[in-house]
Amino acid sequence: MKRPSVERNVNRREFIAGAAALAGLSGLGAAPQGTGGLLVPTDKPDEYGFRIMWYTPTPPIDVRSYHLRVGGLVEKPQSLTLEQLRDYPQETQTSRLKCVQCWSSRATWGGFRFGHLMETVKPLKQVKAIRIDCSDKWYEYLSIEEMLSPRVMLVLDMEGRPLADRHGAPLRLIAPAKYGYKSAKLITSIEFVEEGKGSMACDLGPYYSPHGNILSGYDHPLDQGPKVRTKITGGEITEY
Predict the structure, then answer these.
(1) Secondary-structure percent of the chain, ordered helix, strand, coil, rounded to 5
(2) Cα–Cα distances in Å, from 237 out to 145, 197, 206, 216, 228?
(3) Could you tell me if 45 and 31 are in contact, meaning their C-beta atoms sit under 8 angstroms apart?
(4) On the chain, which terminus has fewer CB atoms closer than 10 Å, C or N?
(5) What value, to the nearest 5°, has the Cα angle with vertex 213 and ends 205 and 183?
(6) Using one digit for the tens of pLDDT, what is the confidence trace for 135-176?
(7) Residues 6+ apart with CB under 8 A from 21
(8) Mind giving me the DSSP string for 91-159?
């Protein structure tokens, strides 16, 4: 079945109902640590104005034993520690993360560019995309071209500090021209592949597209107040 290419504004009840039916969950959401040490759902924005979606309630990743597995169609597969990831040239950028549910928030992110990882593993000529897997069982596909965009970042820090668990520590993606579901969190592995296969989000409902590009419409920037509503033209939000 061909999936629609246009997102529409999705209320939270509708989103959760669709996801729960597929995942067998009672809900999804932004999460501090909850009962049993899990990252669990909440509708309440945090101090930065973010609601962060989890595919399943999941324990935080132990940064002391963390390794990023990088493989697939590459000459030199890797298992990289957090310290090795921090050895790559680090940059910062301020980006607004826009959710398909029609809210957003802005933060200063710190991390490294995908090109450095490519230099380490040396992908084969037939590679056109990557698959990202996360500890909460989420996955995403992005093309090499998308990953090499100058605004896409593999993120280790937020607001001058290492990522908090609720923001996807120790490693997440920021792709500010796309809806937040493409900015995978809790990343555990990256696989280089011949072609991309869209987005896991497409399995959750018809209001997602494989590319996840932000479309024109309206936004509610939660970092600017709970009742602010702003018209947007599509693509990365840079006006505020």
Answers:
(1) 20, 30, 50
(2) 20, 26, 24, 10, 15
(3) no
(4) N
(5) 80
(6) 999 999 999 999 999 999 999 999 999 999 999 999 999 999
(7) none
(8) EEEEEEEE-TTSEEEEEEEEEE-HHHHHHHH-B-TT--EEEEEETTS-EEEEEHHHHTSTT-EEEEEET
Structure tokens at 72: 């697939």
Query: Is 92 part of a structural domain of the chain?
Result: yes
Parent domain of 191? 59-201+209-232
Residue 167's nearest CA partner among 35, 37, 33 is 33
Is 13 a domain residue? no
DSSP-derived 3-state class of residue 8? coil
Please state whether the predicted TM-score (pTM) of the whole model is above 0.70: yes
3-state secondary structure of 54: coil
Q: What CATH number does the domain containing 94 carry?
A: 3.90.420.10
Cα(62)–Cα(121) distance, integer angstroms? 24
Contact 184, 199 (CB under 8 A): no
DSSP code for 160: T
CB-based contacts of 147: which residues, under 8 Å, 6+ apart?
Answer: 114, 130
Q: What does the buried/exposed string (b/e) look like for 52-76 if buried means 16 or more CB atoms within 10 Å of the residue's CB?
A: bbbbebbebbeeeebebebebbbee
Cβ burial, residue 47 (10 Å; 0-12/13-18/19+): exposed
Residue matched to tokens 């920021």? 174
How many domains does the structure of the chain reveal?
1
> pLDDT tens, 82-137?
999 999 999 999 999 999 989 999 999 999 999 999 999 999 999 999 999 999 99
